[in-house]
Write a structure and sequence with these properties.
By secondary structure, this protein is of the alpha+beta class. It has helices at 50-65, 102-115, 162-174, 185-193, 196-201, 233-244, 248-258, 291-316, 338-345, 372-382, 408-435, 445-462; strands at residues 6-11, 15-23, 29-38, 42-43, 46-47, 74-79, 84-94, 122-134, 150-161, 181-184, 203-208, 213-218, 223-229, 274-279, 282-290, 325-329, 351-353, 389-390, 396-397. The strands form 6 sheets. The protein has a 5-stranded mixed beta sheet with strand order 3-2-1-6-10. The chain has a 5-stranded mixed beta sheet with strand order 13-12-11-16-17, with helices on both faces. Strand 14 and strand 15 (282-290) form a beta hairpin. Helix 6 (233-244) crosses helix 7. The longest helix is centred in the C-terminal third of the chain and has 28 residues, at 408-435. The chain is globular, with a radius of gyration of 35 Å. The relative contact order is 0.12.
Length: 463
Amino acid sequence: MSSKTLLAIDIGSSSITAVIAKNNLDGKINILGTGTSKSEGINKGSITNIEVASKAIKNAVNIARGSTAEVIDSSVVSISGAYTKGLRSLGSVNVPNGLITETEINQVMQMALYNATIIPEYEVVHVLPIFFKVDDSKDVENPLNMNGSRLEVSVYIVTAKRTALTNIKSALKSAGIELTNFVLDGYASAISLLDEQQNKFGSTVINIGGTTTEFVSYKGSAIIFNGFIPVGSNHITNDLSVMLHTPPNAAEMLKVKYGNLLKINENDDLAIKKVKIPRIGDEQNTSEVSLEHIQTIIHARVEEILVLIRNKLKQSGIQENIGAGIVITGGMSQLLGIKELAMKVFENTPVKISNPINIKNGYMNFDDPTMSTIVGLLFYSLNDNRTYELDSNKNLIKKAIKKEEPIVTSIVKEEKIIVKDEKVKEKTTNTLEKEDTTKLPTLSKKDKGKGMSRFWSKVSEWF
């Protein structure tokens, strides 16, 4: 378990979140400091102004650093799926000694990466095993210490545009941050949300942010597909502003306060059915608009996002492999009725609105759908209980093996119990022997001789 201090940065489309953390003595994540700032110089997941983006990142990091004096040992940064491509590859190696070690696992994954056709202007971010095979065996989750002569692997490779990664590195460097690893935004979200059963049977995680929607499909604890749509909750605000001729700030208020995908009950006399909104260019005067009209605009945009994702999943053939259903997170997952709409769009596939695992701390509440990525980054870097993979530096991340508890102590205790039992038994036997008056005493050879001598003396006196 690593005890190094980590800086995790989630570069979102609406906000930038920085968290400094490390593992405590119990192996649990200890939050040392947090900071947030508004995303600037970033558009739809891509950096458009390095100087402005660098200041926004630096601001969030400085706020986090204000709570701790710990020296940062490593850093991990999320990247948007906007400029990523996924592909599959295969690799195989011979096992010379017949026993599979981490060396062979690293070699077979490196071979799968070598066999892949990577587009020249793209760089590798993740190499994730879908399954291993040992000789002619069926799919193997963890081949370590297995016996065999040949090891094979099927991998999913996430690549990203080199220019986009370089821009992020430049922005971080200007902010005085040395980068250690990149992590795909959707992958991080999935780590923070999915449980063992959802991983096993297959799930698709949809993270709907401000200007982007990212999704990853999992099956058997491995990514099998990832995608991106350049549409998010900010587009709803824009739609309301344009269609209702109201300023953006008023449109945002309408979305947050009255956003609802569930049908209004017309028979409810107490329900609000109309609201007053200002007009663009004439904000002193207001006009009334029905909530039904507002909801129709919101419904159309949300449905468009979900339909686009459904179509991409169908085209890739992934939709049949999501037995555990759809998991929706991100800011727009809080919209009332999105679960019901998603179930219709995905044709009665199970849908769950989910928040990330809450890491208790005194700085920030992680039990919030907007925190899925940052929580995933922390678990990615500080939790060893994950699968093998090659990270963005092409280094093997090893799967933690739980060490068996030593049984010496228990054996010693058992021996003590046995000795104690024998002493009790001996003591009990002695007590019984003292109490039993009918039992003849045991004589030594010397005593036996004396007894016979007395007997013959007595006989001589009689005759």
